[in-house]
Structure formats: C-alpha cells, structure tokens
C-alpha cells in the first residue's frame, strides 16, 4: 500500500532565503558508514517513460522481497540512483486534482499531437516535462534504514541540486526553494531549472528530480503551466552559463552535456547522504544488487527496441498538429 505524501516542502523557514543550509538539522544527512555504498547507473539512451516507471516499480518489488526475507541483511543494499533522459513526455502527479478523471487533463489538451506522451503518476507535484536535454534522477532509497524523514530527504535533494547549479552556472543567486517556498531550484523568482517530485512505498522512495541541462526542453515547457506556477518559465543550465559574467578563470571550456552533468551529480548525491558510491553492475554483482542490475539491463534493451520501432523521437514540439 502506498504511503500518502501530501506536502513536499514546508516553506515557513525558507520563505525568503537564498540557497544555504536546509531547515533540517544540517546541510547534509548524517554520515552513515554502517550502510553500504549507493549503486548508480547512467543510461546511454533516452528511456520511454513507461519503461522507466516499470523499472522503478520492479526494483522496489525486488527490494521489498529482500527486506521481507532478511530485514537485517538487506539493509540499504538496494539503494540505487538511476540517471537518465526520457523521450518527450509530460507527466502530472497526485497533487494535481483533475476536475474529471474521465476527461483529458486540462494541460494534456494543450499538448495533444505535438510529439510527446502524457502520463498521470503517483509522484508528488503537478504537470512537468521530461525529455532529451534534461537530466532525470530516480533515487530509490530506503528512508527507514537511513533514518531520514521524508521532508529532510526532499530538502537534501533540493540543496544538492541548488549547489550544483550555483557552481556550474557561476551564479550566486540560485534559489532552492523559491522565495515563496515552492519546491525546486530557481534562478530567479520567475525562472525554474530543476524540479523534485517523489513517491514512497513502504518508506522506499521512487521518482526523484529533474534538471534542465540543455535548452532543448524549454520549447516543450512553454506549452504548459509547469508545476502550476503561471508566472514561472523554465530555464536551463546552458542559458544560465551564457548569462554569467565572463572574467579571467571564469570561462567554461564547453557547455555541459547531460551525461557530463550526471557524472558531476553522482559524488554530490553521495556526499549529501553521507554514503560511498559504486557503479551498479560490477563484475560478479549478485544478491539484491545483482537482481536490480538485471532489471536495468532489461530496461535498456526495451528502450532501444521501443525507440527503434518508433523511429526515434521529436527534437521539438510539432505546433502544426496542436
């Protein structure tokens, strides 16, 4: 049975703050040397959204079975961070109360036939977009063994992303959360670069975060009211880097790729949660982690087959078919 999660963030203590420490006890989770390393995997090809969703659910099933069989021995062994891109997809979460479940979602009406799918999910949050040029992080973590409250988990993700954006963009004024308390990472009160939406099942998390790296997602975001924020538009890391004042020693050699951003996020994620990190799928991987690796390989193969069957994906919305 899924645990309800009605509120992603309490804004009372952060309503006017720039990125600093979180409102939890420290700016990162307490070190957990007794817990095993977090496994991670960076996908090389965009995943159709249903493939990614099934993968998360299957991994949680594996984790729950292992936990039931050996509650002590499986402690944290299946904690995994999946970093990927999706093919063009709009999603909405359970906070988004559609007026009639038998009718098209109001935002779905705006994006019919433009080249993207639309799915209603169990995560928190409202309408958002996922697609090439955006880094998606699915973190499947057991909050019980981490002794981490849900609120703090969300704030740690938010602070980690905010720190990365601030360092990569070379801009100081990065808001995490929004000055009005909205969850996510913002480059100004009217521009958002990263979103967070999670789901819990027996205290194991799924879904996670998304970060616009290139500017490719922006034209897709412009078609909807993302996250229910009418006066906020999407921006990207590339856009922010181009705005940063240029000075000696402050000029990037090149703009980051999604894969490059993923590699930078991995150690920051591990540090934020006080854990070591290891690549998923090392030679001889067995047990809980081995089963998860098999699921990941199956998902990658399924994605290749689906993308080939569909002839790839649209690089921009087809506005002529709206």
From TrEMBL:
Belongs to the LipB family. It is an enzyme of class 2 (transferase). It comes from Cryptococcus amylolentus CBS 6039. It comes from the Eukaryota. Keywords: Acyltransferase, Transferase. Residues 75-277 form the BPL/LPL catalytic domain. This is lipoyl(octanoyl) transferase. The keyword Ubl conjugation does not apply. Residues 301-322 are annotated as: Disordered. Pathway: Protein modification; protein lipoylation via endogenous pathway; protein N(6)-(lipoyl)lysine from octanoyl-[acyl-carrier-protein]: step 1/2. Its EC number is 2.3.1.181. GO terms for molecular function: lipoyl(octanoyl) transferase activity. InterPro entries: aa-tRNA-synth_II/BPL/LPL, BPL_LPL_catalytic, Octanoyltransferase, Octanoyltransferase_CS.
